[in-house]
Amino acid sequence: MFTNNQRQLERTGRYGTSRLQYLQELVNQFQNASENETKEKILANLANFAYDPYNYNFLRQLNVLELFLDCITEPNEKLIEFGVGGICNCCVEKLQIQSMLQL
Predict the structure, then answer these.
(1) At CA 28, angle to CA 25 and CA 29, rounded to 5?
(2) Which DSSP category does 78 fall into?
(3) What share of the chain is helix, strand, coil (3-state, %, to 5)?
(4) 46-78 tens-digit pLDDT
(5) Which of 10, 54, 88, 102 has the lowest tally of Cβ within 10 angstroms?
(6) Please, what is the average pLDDT of the chain?
(7) How far is CA 80 from the centre of its chain?
(8) From the record, what ranges are coiled-coil (predicted)?
(9) Which range marks the domain in which residue 25 is found?
(10) How many structural domains compose the chain?
(11) What is the pLDDT of residue 95?
């Protein structure tokens, strides 16, 4: 389901974690993870966020597209799969495609 500002406000409430902050935490967890299974779960989660246009600006700010691209060169097949999935989800938006081509 796609989201919007109103839906996000309803879901997070007044004192909840913003989407940008939550995605930043996921990126930090991925970068600090040492076990492949943990990285796989986090990357799959990030790839799921990449399908919703609401998240595109946040993902760009956090360089998540670069993270997806980095993962497709990993020896771990799951990281490759989730990296490719994240890239595919991001490529719906023209600006995301342009960003990827510049990398």
Answers:
(1) 85
(2) H
(3) 75, 0, 25
(4) 999 999 989 999 999 999 999 999 999 999 999
(5) 102
(6) 88
(7) 14
(8) none
(9) 5-102
(10) 1
(11) 74
- Which residue has 């946040």 as its token pair? 58
CATH code of 36's domain: 1.25.10.10
pLDDT at 94 over 90: no
* Residue 98 identity (one-letter amino acid): Q
Confidence of residue 8 (pLDDT cuts 50, 70, 90): low
Least confident of 1-5, 48-52, 87-91: 1-5
Q: How far is CA 52 from CA 33, 76, 88, in A?
A: 25, 26, 12
The single residue listed with the structure tokens 């990993």 is 74
State CA 87 to chain mean position distance.
9
